[in-house]
Design a protein that fits this description.
Blueprint: H1 2-26, H2 28-63, H3 68-72, H4 75-85, H5 89-99
Helix pairs in contact: 1-2, 2-4, 4-5
Biased composition (Polar residues): 117-126
Region (Disordered): 117-150
Pfam families: FxsA (PF04186)
Length: 150
């Protein structure tokens, strides 16, 4: 745990050192262009993936069998976009690793229970129509007479 905290504190220095190393090898202008292009690429990735990732997570949670892998899988593109927006070569390298086409979870492996899809009024599996019977009564809220507005 202590080693992880030390690496977390040293991470910004590694990022700055990687930018200086890149500027030394390809030039300051090209390094600045790299940082600007990676920032805009990251913002485009985050903008395009936020709704799709959230809908996939909601569908996975609604299915009932939630594992950490299935929850974090759709967020990899959003995390890659965030890492691309951070200036530095290490964060860009981690973002590119996240963007590689790793095989995700297959839908057959998720064991999602299949609900029978029937139109209203059709016979279900148990032979009865999909109608819920019940009674209701509308109740008006009662307020004291002195509390009415005039």
């Amino acid at each position: 745990m202590r080693g992880f905290l030390i690496l977390l504190l040293l991470y910004p220095f590694f990022e700055i050192y990687s930018l200086f190393w890149l500027a030394d090898h390809i030039g300051g202008g090209w390094t600045l262009a790299w940082v600007i292009v990676s920032f805009f690429a990251g913002s485009l990735l985050m903008r395009g993936s936020k709704l799709g990732g959230l809908l996939t997570i909601a569908g996975t949670m609604r299915a009932g069998n939630v594992s950490l892998f299935t929850l974090l899988w759709p967020l990899r593109i959003m995390l890659a976009g965030l890492l691309l927006m951070i200036p530095g070569l290490l964060s860009d390298l981690f973002a590119l690793l996240l963007l590689l086409p790793w095989p995700g979870p297959k839908l057959a492996d998720l064991n999602i229970p299949q609900a029978p899809f029937s139109q209203p009024g059709q016979q279900g599996d148990n032979g009865s129509a999909d109608i819920i019977e019940g009674e209701y009564e509308r109740v008006e809220p009662r307020t004291p007479q002195d509390r009415h507005l005039r």
